[in-house]
Structure formats: structure tokens, C-alpha cells
Design brief:
Layout (H helix, E strand, L loop, with lengths): L3 E9 L4 H14 L3 E7 L8 E9 L13 E6 L2 H6 L4 E10 L6 H6 L5 H9 L4 E5 L1 H8 L5 H11 L7 H11 L2 H16 L1
Parallel strand pairs: 1-4, 4-5, 5-6
Antiparallel strand pairs: 1-3, 2-3
InterPro entries: IorB_Oxidoreductase (IPR052198), Pyrv/ketoisovalerate_OxRed_cat (IPR019752), Pyrv_flavodox_OxRed_cen (IPR002869)
Protein name: Indolepyruvate ferredoxin oxidoreductase beta subunit
Keywords: Oxidoreductase, Pyruvate
Length: 195
């Protein structure tokens, strides 16, 4: 049986979902594994939905796109976006979610209330293993709100939801991120892992 890990990363534009998928893909390639990625960004802009599909295996992968019920891990940069992608999670899968919300534009336009706690409740009730991370507090601790993506990768790695060590993800950060942001991102990775 071949090693296989299907990961879905869901957030909103500007949160770094695409970079997160690139870091996981780089860690996989550095480990000699096959990897395929795809982003579903459509009309995404700052605040719009962004979903990254990451498939990792020790054999060839036909399609980069996950099918419903196939994700081992769902990383939600925003709880409502994680709820939106629940149909992709396999039974018994793992969800790593940020506790903070970003209200969708549709809530502002229709003047409807958006409850992050209700979204977290849906995640708690879905039967998956759930890890909730206080992303804002951890980002404030390391000095940058822009490091949420790497904080959540650290939490997912520590929860055993990625099959990559922190050292492998650190190497991916060093190879992928601009040098002036490497130290910040490594601090973010370890802060997420401690959480």
C-alpha cells in the first residue's frame, strides 16, 4: 500500500493559503514524494474564498483535485471556509482551524449576522478530530498577522495531520520564502506547533 495524504487548505484571499500549499508541496518533493497541487480561487481577492488541494504519495498521482470524502486533513484559515469544505473530509479525518473569523462579503451585503462560534460548533459536531488554534494571539506573539498560514501548518504538523516534521517544513520555508521573512516564518511554525 502506498503512502498517501490528501490535504485541503481553505481560507480567504490574503491569508496565505497558496503559500501554505507550496510549503507542503516543497516538503513532499524534498522527501522524494510525488505531489500535485491545485488552487480553486475563482473570483478570489482579499476576502474571497480560496481553496488549495494538495495530494502527496509515494507513487504517481493522476489528478491534483480532491474528490468529496477524500481529504485526510482540512486546514481552515477561517472556520466558515472550513465548514464550506467539510464535504471533502473523509470520515475520521482531522481538521485544524483558526478560531478567528473573517465575515464573508455576503454577510455585509445582506446585513446578516455571521457567527464564528456557530461555524466552530459545526466543525465540533461533524465527527472529525478537531484542533482549534487561536491564530490571532499566536501571530501577535510572533509580531505578524501575516504568518497565520505558517502558524496553522505548525499546528497541523504537531497534530500529526501532515506526515511532515517541523524540520522538513523549516527546510521548505528556507527554500521557498524570501530570505528576509525566513526567521519570522520559522518562529510562526514553532508557535503553531506549541499551540
Amino acid at each position: 500500500m502506498s503512502l498517501k495524504r490528501n490535504i485541503m487548505i481553505a481560507g480567504v484571499g490574503g491569508q496565505g493559503t497558496v503559500l501554505a500549499s507550496k510549503l507542503v508541496a516543497r516538503a513532499a518533493m524534498d522527501a522524494g514524494l510525488a505531489v500535485r497541487t491545485s488552487e480553486t480561487i475563482g473570483m478570489a481577492q482579499r476576502g474571497g474564498s480560496v481553496v488549495s488541494h494538495v495530494r502527496v504519495s509515494d507513487s504517481a498521482i493522476a489528478s491534483p483535485v480532491l474528490t468529496p470524502g477524500s481529504a485526510d486533513t482540512l486546514i481552515g484559515f477561517e472556520p466558515g471556509e472550513a465548514v464550506r469544505c467539510l464535504r471533502y473530509l473523509r470520515p475520521g479525518g482531522c481538521i485544524v482551524s483558526n478560531a478567528q473569523t473573517v465575515a464573508p462579503a455576503s454577510a455585509a451585503l445582506t446585513r446578516t449576522e455571521y457567527s464564528g462560534e456557530a461555524m466552530l460548533g459545526r466543525l465540533r459536531d461533524c465527527g472529525a478530530r478537531l484542533v482549534v488554534v487561536d491564530g490571532d494571539a499566536l501571530c501577535a506573539e510572533i509580531g505578524s498577522l501575516k504568518a497565520l498560514n505558517v502558524v496553522l501548518l505548525g499546528a497541523a504538523a504537531a497534530a500529526g495531520a501532515l506526515d511532515f516534521t517541523l524540520e522538513q517544513l523549516e527546510a521548505a520555508i528556507r527554500a521557498t520564502v524570501r530570505p528576509k521573512f525566513v526567521d519570522l516564518n520559522i518562529r510562526a511554525l514553532h508557535a503553531g506547533a506549541r499551540a
